[in-house]
Structures are given as C-alpha cells and as structure tokens.
Amino acid sequence: MKPRAIGERLQRELRRYPAVALVGPRQCGKTTLAQWVGGYYFDLEDEADILKLDLAWDRLIEGRDLVVLDEAQSHPPVFKRMRSAIDRRRQENGRFLVLGSVSPGLMREVSESLAGRLALIELTPFFLDEVGEDALDVLWLHGGFPDGGILGTDAMPGWQRNYLALLAQRDLPAWGLPSKPQMTERLFKMLAVAHGTLWNASAIGQSLGLNYQTVNSYLDYLEGAFLLQRLQPYHANIRKRLVKSPKVYWRDTGLLHALAGISTMDALLSQPWVGASWEGFVIQQAISRLNASGTGFVPYHLRTSDQYEIDLLLDFGTERWACEIKLTADPKAGDLMRLNKVADLIGAERRILISRTLNPVESEASASLNLPGFLAKLAAIEKSPG
Q1: In the CATH hierarchy, which top-level class contains the domain 7-122?
Q2: What is the 3-state secondary structure (H, E, C) of 314-379?
Q3: Which residues, including other chains, have CB under 8 Å from residue 248's CB and lie 6 or more apart?
Q4: Confidence of residue 385 (pLDDT cuts 50, 70, 90)
Q5: How far apart are CA 63 and CA 124, in angstroms?
Q6: pLDDT, tens digit, for every residue of 297-333?
Q7: In sequence order, which residues have a C-beta less than 8 Å from that of residue 383 and are 6 or more positions away?
Q8: What are residue 355's phi and psi, to 5 degrees?
Q9: Using one digit for the tens of pLDDT, what is the confidence trace for 99-137?
Q10: Cα–Cα distance between 263 and 155 in angstroms, integer?
Q11: 124: closest CA among 256, 4, 298, 281?
Q12: Do 43 and 71 touch, CB atoms closer than 8 A?
C-alpha cells in the first residue's frame, strides 16, 4: 500500500476514542487504509457480511480486536449496537473503525447514536505530499483517486467518466438525491463550467429548468458526497463592500477535466479556464494537507465589490493566512503588493503568493512560493507546539 499521510492521525485517534469514523469519497482508499490498520472487516453493503457480523457480534464485542465497518450508513441498526457495546466498556478505546462515503447519512447516525464516543476523520484522494512533487502535473491533470491514473495507469478519462456515471445512476439516488440520473449528469457538466466562480443557483437552475432552491438542495448532496467544495465568503467589518456568495470548486481536478473532455496537459493549458483549474487544485491540496494532520482551520475566500480578492483565506483561530494563487512561473512584485493591500484590510498575519515559481522569496510576513513550498509551510504549522 502506498503510505497515506493520514495514517498516523488515524492510529492516534483510535488510541484516544472508542470509535473512529473515516469518511471520504468512494474509491479514495478508505478500505485499503482500514485493511492496513487491521482488525475484522465487514462490508455493510453486502448482505452476507451483515449476516456474518450479526452472528459474530457477541464474540467480537467481548474481544479486544478492532472491528471495521465499511459503508456503515447503509445499515443503520449497527450504530445503536455500537453505542451499547461502547457504553458497556466505556474506558476502552480503539474498538470500532467506521467507514463511510456520504457525509449526511453517516453523520445523522453518528450524532444520534455515537456523539462523544467517536472521532471523525476525512480521507481525501492522494495529494501532493503523498505522491511527490515530481508528480505535480500528473496529479493536477488526473486527480488523486488511486485508480484514476495518478499511480501510473492510463485510466483517464474513462475511469472518471464511469465513476461519475455510477454516482449519478446508483449511489446518489440511494443516498436520497431526488434527481434522475440524466439530470444529475447535466448538473455535473454545468458545475464543471461553474468551477471556481461565484455560486449562482438561479443561473444554473434556469439552464436546467429547476428553481434555485432545488439546485441548492442538489448541491448539498454533491457536497456531502465529497464531490464539491463550497468555499464560503469571509465576513469582516471593513470599509469596502464584500461579496457574500460562496465559490464552488470540484474537489478532484481529474473529475473536472474529464467532464470538460480534457485528457492531456497540452489540452488543459490551452483552455481559457485553466487558471480556475489551477486555483481549485491548490486550494484542495492545502485543505487535504491540513485535514490529514487534524490541524484546526476554516477556509474562506474574500472578494470586495471593486474586485480586490483573496483566493484562499485560512483562519487558524490564532492567525489568518491570506493566499493568492497564480498560474505563472514568473510572479510579479505587484501581485504580492496587491495581496498585501487586501490582507491589510482584515489584518491577516501571513500573506502568501502561490505560483509555479522556481525562485521562492520569503520575508517575516510575506512569501512568494511554489505549491510544494506552500505545503511545507502548512506542515510546519502541524509540527509547531500547541
């Protein structure tokens, strides 16, 4: 198994809690990671495994081995049984590892049955620190799903198209999305066009013949299935008027590129929206890096009515990082000056311009970095005291 950065955190949380929920999109590697951890494994989408679990339950909960329950939201009765088993031996940790591919269904069961007894961890597809910076362009083009091409196969774009078709036809309806597969696939394509833009549910709805409330409800499902990221606007009391709409990104650029019919770097670089693709890629790399370690943060974007903006604002509670993302190997001093001007409005402690530069420059508060350098800065936060 290719090592996953979140593995250390997963083992740490199993030592601290009776149960851990490992969530993330389908086929991002949850099952492989769980098998690496070890224990008794049951797939709760498989009727045979449900029966095996039922027959072995009393023996398993009396033992000390980890019990791994895959796609647990598919079999809700297991959550009450877990709660009872945990409460009987409340001081023992590392008893259950719950895997899930859809956040709303799983979290509803967790909140009702396992509140206070369970730690929640999100596994993303592979990110740059896990595959190495030499694979940066391959990761950007193909995305991070293990079977989608990042591990050296020529699966793209067929794998990504099949993945999305299966979600539209089987998984999303099973998870409660009240949309016909044909409508869902049309929505996917509309959302590919909207990638990196301010969210406008009315415009999307008009194109699909739906009202904006319906479009927003569909987006909730897609976000809960870890397909999309709504980057919320940052609210601050400043003299400029702020844009209040979120921005929407595909979390995996391989899925985005497949929807757009892109399968080579030459084709990608010739697109007028390539900058938005790069922006979303960098944002997800940062979020994946921080999630892997459990660093507390909230991501935002900021835009003023006169077009000053911060592409990614990371709020760590004790400080804020203002990040501008540029698809260029030759960033200009004016880019960082403009970022500093907007960052001054909200008092951001760190200002970072992220590009493809080969000549990083850094001062006490500001930096011009490439993506590997930026991720290294985030890793340094993880290792700092407290």
Answers
A1: alpha beta
A2: EECCCCEEEEEECCCCCCCHHHHHHHHHHHHHHCCCEEEEEECCCCCEECCCEEEEEHHHHHHHHH
A3: 191, 194, 195, 196, 197, 199, 219, 228, 229, 230, 231
A4: very low
A5: 31
A6: 999 999 988 888 999 999 999 999 999 999 999 999 8
A7: none
A8: -145, -160
A9: 988 766 666 777 677 878 889 999 999 999 999 999 999
A10: 10
A11: 4
A12: yes
The single residue listed with the structure tokens 């193909």 is 142
Is residue 324 within 8 Å of 366, Cβ to Cβ?
A: no
Extended beta strands in the chain, E state: 19-23, 40-43, 67-70, 96-100, 118-122, 197-198, 228-231, 247-250, 298-303, 309-315, 320-325, 350-355, 361-362, 366-370
Q: With DSSP H G I counted as helix, E B as strand and the rest as coil, what are the percentages for the chain, rounded to 5?
A: 50, 20, 35
- Give the chain's length: 386
Name the token pair of 276: 């938005």
What does residue 369 show for φ and ψ, rounded to 5 degrees? Answer: -130, 160
- Name the residue type at position 60: L
Q: Is the pLDDT of residue 382 over 70?
A: no
Sign of CA dihedral 155, 161, 166, 167: positive
Look at residue 193 and tell me whether its pLDDT is greater than 80: yes
Angle between helices 103-113 and 212-224 (to 10 degrees): 70
Three-state DSSP class for residue 20:
strand
For residue 31, with 0-12 CB atoms within 10 Å meaning exposed, 13-18 middle and 19 or more buried, which class applies? middle
Q: Per-residue pLDDT averaged across 87-98, rounded?
A: 94
**pTM for this entry:** 0.94
pLDDT digits (tens, 9 = 90+) for 134-163: 999 999 999 999 999 998 878 899 999 999
Mean pLDDT, all residues of the chain: 93
Instruction: Reply yes or no on whether the pLDDT at 383 is more than 70.
Output: no
Contact 272, 293 (CB under 8 A): no
Ordered by start, the domain boundaries in the chain are: 7-122, 128-383
- Please answer whether residues 195 and 277 qualify as being in contact, where contact means their C-beta atoms are separated by less than 8 angstroms: yes
Own/partner pairs, 84-90, CB within 8 angstroms, 24+ separation: 85/61, 86/18, 86/19, 86/114, 86/117, 87/117, 88/61, 90/18
Three-class SS state of 79: helix
Q: Compute and round to an integer the Cα radius of gyration of the chain.
A: 22
Provide the CA 314 distance to its chain's centre, in angstroms.
15
